[in-house]
């Protein structure tokens, strides 16, 4: 019986520090600002004065999942160490594409998608393989599933289908992205990063 008393006395302090909801964060973040990434533009690299043949260039990069990976590019050409090697990154600009569907218009440009609709957005989620974004809008409509394939875009295809009480939009992308969703009275804006 004494063992149970000691165990009970041991658990009393533990219960005093227990929270009602263990999944609620202990610290609440304040003043969160989402920063847009600064894109790499250009760098000049001067090789040492004994360099004569550039064998390869190794790019070490971080993925969206924070994995560190690398890509090797074989060169195997003669170089003049007096002149710099210039690496330039040019951000791709995507032209405006407008897709019309029975219940909304979709505007696609420069990693932004705007769904022009007055319908209420019920939910947004993504599926991993292949990476696609799923949006459900509230409206009671009935139409056959529509699929539109795009070329020369970061959006590969858009599939729209009606269900009971809502319609679903599935947007397939060329790679995995993080995204931000903004709603207003004119529709839904999705920005990819």
Number of domains: 2
The percent of residues in helical segments reads under 10%
The first-level CATH class of the largest domain is given as: Mainly Beta
Shape: flat
- CATH topology description of the largest domain: Immunoglobulin-like
| Helix-strand makeup class | mainly beta
Mean pLDDT: 86
The major beta sheet can be summarized as: 5 strands, antiparallel
Order of helices and strands: HEEEEEEEEEEEEEE
Low-confidence stretches: none
Q: How far is the N terminus from the C terminus?
A: 62 Å
| Whole-angstrom Rg | 26 Å
Read across the widest sheet, the strand sequence of neighbours is 5-6-7-14-13
Number of strands: 14
Give an account of the 3D structure.
There is one protein chain. The protein has 193 residues and is mainly beta. The protein has 2 domains: 47 residues, no CATH class; 96 residues, Immunoglobulin-like (Sandwich), CATH 2.60.40. It is built from 1 helix and 14 strands. The strands form 4 sheets. A 5-stranded antiparallel β-sheet has the order 5-6-7-14-13, with no helix packed on it. The longest helix has 15 residues. It is flat and about 70 Å long.
